[in-house]
Amino acid sequence: MARFLHIADAWYSDHIRRNGIRPTSLRNGIRAVFCVPVVPDHAMTLQWARELRAGGTRSFVAVIFDAPDAGQVQVGRYGTEHAQMPATEAHHDFLAATHPAGQEVLAPRGIAAVELRKIAPHPGWWAADCCPETKGRAFSPLRGTMNAARRRAAIDRRMG
Questions:
Q1: What's the pLDDT score for residue 116?
Q2: d(Cα 132, Cα 22) in Å, to the nearest integer?
Q3: Looking at residue 21, which CATH number applies to its domain?
Q4: What is the DSSP letter of 46?
Q5: Does the pLDDT at position 140 exceed 80?
Q6: In this structure, what are the phi and psi dihedrals at residue 150, rounded to the nearest 5 degrees?
Q7: Distance of CA 57 to the CA centre of its chain
Q8: Which of 30, 114, 102 is nearest to 72 (CA)?
Q9: Is 81 a member of any domain?
Q10: 142 occurs within a structural domain
Q11: What CA–CA distance (Å, rounded) separates 86 from 70?
Q12: N or C: which end of the chain has fewer CB within 10 A?
């Protein structure tokens, strides 16, 4: 079984615990659940937290679930064409990608409550604020995003 993570607003955690995760309608008319494979690099696993925060979500939960090995998912970089493949292959492709930032997995079905393995509060780790393309340079969150000045100050304190 391949293990995936879906980041959701904490407001919906009780609903998700009872009913699972419903698929979301996408621009092209299909319905899917956004997720990423759980990998050792937390910055890559939690990369979408920054985008959700920019949309106004303040508190998150990390929903971890197992997908059947033979279950088909769509994998690709955000805004590009996605390839359809088995869940385990998607997990391996994500690990092997040279630039996994921006990669996403779309599960074309809902995730039942019995498939959920863990729902935990997600602190909005600072790693999710880092842009991987900075390659060692100091990162400054974009102006105009929520709490940008406070986040820049926190990153400056950490970087010394």
A1: 92
A2: 30
A3: 3.20.170
A4: T
A5: no
A6: -65, -40
A7: 14
A8: 30
A9: yes
A10: no
A11: 5
A12: C
Residue 127 — very low, low, confident or very high, per pLDDT cuts 50/70/90? Answer: very low
Q: Is residue 64 a part of any domain in this protein? A: yes
Residue the block writes with tokens 């997990």: 91
- DSSP run (H or E) holding 75: strand 72-77
DSSP state of 109: S
More confident residue, 143 or 36: 36
Range of the domain at 50: 2-123
CA angle 83, 63, 9 (to 5 degrees): 100
* Residue with the two structure tokens 């607003």: 9
Which phi and psi (to 5°) does residue 77 adopt? -80, 145
Do residues 123 and 37 touch, judged by C-beta distance below 8 A?
A: no
Task: Say how far apart CA 129 and CA 104 lie, in whole Å.
Answer: 17
How many structural domains is the chain composed of? 1
How much is the pLDDT for 101? 76
